[in-house]
Amino acid sequence: MGAHERDLGKTVVYQIYIKSFCDSDGDGTGDLRGITSKLDYLAYLGVDYVWITPFFPSPQRDNGYDISDYCAVDPVFGTMDDFDELVAEARRRGIGIMLDMVLCHTSSEHVWFQRALAGDERYRSYYILRDGRGSTGPGDPGEPPTNWQSAFGGSMWEWEPRLGKWYLHMHDVTQPDLNWDNPEVRAELAQVVRFWRDRGVAGFRFDVVSLISKPEVFEDAGPEGGRSLIADGPHVHEYLQELVREAGIDGMLTVGEMAATTLENCVRYTNPASHELGMVFSFHHLKVDYLNGKKWALQDPDIARLRELFATWQERMQEGHGWSALFWNNHDQPRAVTRFGGREGVGEAGGSWELAAKMLGVCAHLMQGTPYIFQGEEIGMVNAGYASIDDYRDVESHNAYRALVEAGSTPAEALHVVGERSRDNGRTPMQWTDAPGAGFTAGEPWLAIPASSVLVNVAAEKGRPGSILEFYRELVRLRHELGVIADGRVRFIDPGVGAPRAIMFERWLESEAAREAAEAGAPVRLLTVCSFDEGASSVDLPDAWCSAEQLIGNYGDVRQCGGTLALRPFEAQVLWTR
Q: Is residue 516 part of a domain?
């Protein structure tokens, strides 16, 4: 057993997008007291940690990921007393609070950037400033220093006359990147993390942390874009080790969001010997429906590619003693149940919506790593389905819509693409009830509530046998109780020509752990089969599994095993043996 499994294998994390989880004061925006009011629900689900997206002061150009003060609470979300109460009440229920640290960039309204604009040389060195190409001298901007393109469209460089330089912003123009090569910056950020650790925070998620170390030489990018030149930079491991050491968070629950990363670096980030991160989010598996690798170009999910990516990352992370965060959904992604086929029978038992939601849960929760549940995933929340671009709030979505129309798409075609891809699909308010406001707010919600809320909501599923919510509770329970899920090794198996849209993998315990499980009557080996096919298919089972018993399945009946396992649409089966 590797060092990670003992600490992380039994852990399940729930992600809350604070603006959309629960509004306690009727202003239409979720808040800290709203989260506190739902802690009993989170305890009912059984999760161990709650990751909360940023609630720090922010102009909200990027929904809170543009921070103007790292060590305060935005009044929109409550007070520091509200935060302290949340931490205490969560701890009382055995739940740790995990915060989102956005340390790659600040808001342009942060005092550091404002002091830089005012000419303070100390704070000018906190950011990445360059002269333009072809500049003839002070006051002449010339051209941007490189051809790098921002994640939100347009150049990564912005000319600022008050600085007399171009500043780098990998995201929105109001999010200037910090200069991590400056030791003062690193010391400031370590102090930020210590501030929250000392207030009782139990874990940290680090936003786009693979991008903190910039190249030593800035040069133009090829078709792959500037992010690939910046990701996993020359000092990223050194800087992460320093942050962990100086902030005193080694051994705490930590996860890094890895943009444009490589598998080899993710192994290194998470190998316990590195003392960097507990686990990583990588996003390669959520690009299998990008036509030619382009986010705003649609294609059906390539399940063969998905299977290949899972197999490669799971097995090679295992070989290198790395550790993965397992997830389908988050605040930057469209809803997976819509994305991977669960479009029929929304709100109805037995439809592809319910089957696909449960199948996706099985696929993620049975792999090796730490599963993350994004708010609403556990009840099968679907894409927003908005009828107008005006219903969207996300800056990236509006930029993409304009770019699509300018490139020749009709408004209806552009709206369809945005409807499939927008980050707002994951940001719609949590659907607690079928009442107006979905039980999220008594006021006007900051983002429109989808029509699906009358069918898909917590009240309709809590306590109902066979619901998606109760199925997710069972997945959490199994991870907590079965060593083979928490600690077992993993190997992927080719499902064969009869099931081209299936993913199949084994988990097993070795040596002493296997003996102890067998003596306790618990599973020693598991076989998971997940069909992403809307039709029937079949897999030939390896001989060792022909007489195995069923651990869990998403159809609710008990399957009898034989040499062939006939798979129904979107079926998930987990078999076990000793």
A: yes
